[in-house]
Amino acid sequence: MISRTLRTLIEEKPFVTCPGVFDLVSAKLADRTRADALYMTGYGAVASYLGLPDAGLATYSQMLDRVQAIAQTVHKPLIADGDTGYGGLLNVHHTVRGYEKAGAAAIQLEDQQSPKKCGHTPNRHVIPVKEMINKLMVANDARSSRDFLIIARTDARTPLGLDEAIRRGEAYAKAGADIIFIESPESEAEMRKIGSALDVPLVSNQLHGGRTPILSQDKLREIGYRMAIYPTAGLLAAAYALNNVYGSLVDDKPVQAPLYDFNEFSSLIGFQEVWDFEKKYASLEAG
């Protein structure tokens, strides 16, 4: 059970740290850390689940399956990427209801045109402000609890400039979004401008390999952010390790990369519970 809601964390903690998770193993590992909450990255979930790019190819049903599986596995609040809401206003209503029922603590909705793309890749386009405001109004009405948070993301910085992105952030906050996410600022100066312009909880996308500078949590808090997500760090680390290990195996070379202890991993994924169950009901099996 989740002991503290994401809303409580944002209200009570100076900064909320959210590692990105992309499958059930990464979720279990991140859940063991001192992280405040977890972020189900659309980029990573689509890559690991479907082997496809984060380019609007995953369906609502496929993403809901991932949300539910991860939320039921972890104890920390889970922020889930909801893309554009997977369609029009009725789709947004359905998506918010589905994500909340699946156990997510928050949904991230963005103002990209469909099909959407990863926020640190080119050729992204945004919908009109009014259209996104309408989506947020529907999302507000759809949620059954105010503890289920709505994160409004704008991708306007890249195609329309920082000032327009800030203007959209202000409009989305007025429309009822709990947290504002201005995607892909390209310098610390831009991030400072966002932090000083918006008097609402802000999340920084600390995407390793992306357009935005990777800053310390103290620095992010100083310039006005209340939360950070780290979508790609775990995914890229896992991919790098797997690439090296598989290459060594195929080339008949000793595996050089550190390996997670087999017994500890067996415990992580629940074998101890299986063994305890078998011991408890051994007499029934024998009969």
Automatic annotation (TrEMBL):
Pfam family, one: PEP_mutase
A single MF term (Gene Ontology): oxo-acid-lyase activity
Organism domain of life: Bacteria
Protein name, entry field: Carboxyvinyl-carboxyphosphonate phosphorylmutase
Biological source species: Bradyrhizobium jicamae
